[in-house]
Amino acid sequence: MDDGALFLAWRAGDRAAGGQLIERHFDAIARFFATKVGVAHQDDLVQRTFLAAVEGAAGFRGDGSFRAFLFGIARNLVFEQYRAKARDARNDPDFSASALVDLAPGLVTAADARAERRRLVAALQRIPLEAQVLIELYYWEGLSVEELAQALDVPTGTIKSRLFKARAQLREAAEALDRLEPGGPSAQHELDAWVAQMAARGRGEP
Asked: Cys-Cys crosslink for 37: which of 41, 91, 110, 133, Cβ 3.0 to 4.6 Å?
């Protein structure tokens, strides 16, 4: 069964369909939260994503990508968490300008443990959170421009321009990280290798 059929069955009370749908997308949603929240919050946000999907008033209607629908919920939950934290400090965050290193100084995430990606993840966490989300969803999760437009509720042309800007921000962050932390693996080298790998998989510039 495709995602749409499983989702409709789940909303109708078929728990087995829900379990199959969660199993199908669990790893991707967990991976999304891994680079953005502390390990203490990751599991809770994954559960809340699927709960919001099946119980939300504005549910998936089968007229788009279910993956994009899920990632849209996950993105909103991340933003909601940091807005709540900022309200305590009486400072409303701007996710188009604020990076994770600004929003949560000292945050330890359950980021990709593979050594070849550690510096890349560190660079990602130094660009605006909105840009980080866009880069990861397009390159790591393989969402199309159309799916990203659905998840973020913006036109496809806006997605393309934001991706162009986000790539430039990531390269600047990698260069700055190498200057800040010289020695060891180079973030710029990891970024170049990653870009080449993504291009080979057909995930170059849209």
From this structure: 41
- Residue 75: predicted pLDDT: 96
Q: Comparing 68 with 40, which gets the higher pLDDT? A: 68
The model's pTM: 0.87
Mean pLDDT for the stretch of residues 11-25: 93
Compute CA distances 57 → 52, 61, 70, 98, 121, whole Å: 9, 11, 14, 30, 35
With b meaning 16 or more CB within 10 Å and e meaning fewer, what string describes 51-80? ebbeeeeeebeeebbbbbbbbbbbbebbbe
**Is 114's pLDDT higher than 60?**
no
Residue 1 confidence (pLDDT): 81
Strand-pairing partners, residue 128, are 99
Q: Are 111 and 118 in contact (CB under 8 A)?
A: yes
Give the C-alpha separation, 141 to 34, whole Å: 13
- Dmax over CA atoms of the chain, in Å, equals 56
Residues 6+ apart with CB under 8 A from 69: 53, 60, 150, 151
Q: If DSSP codes are grouped into helix, strand and coil, which group holds residue 35?
A: coil
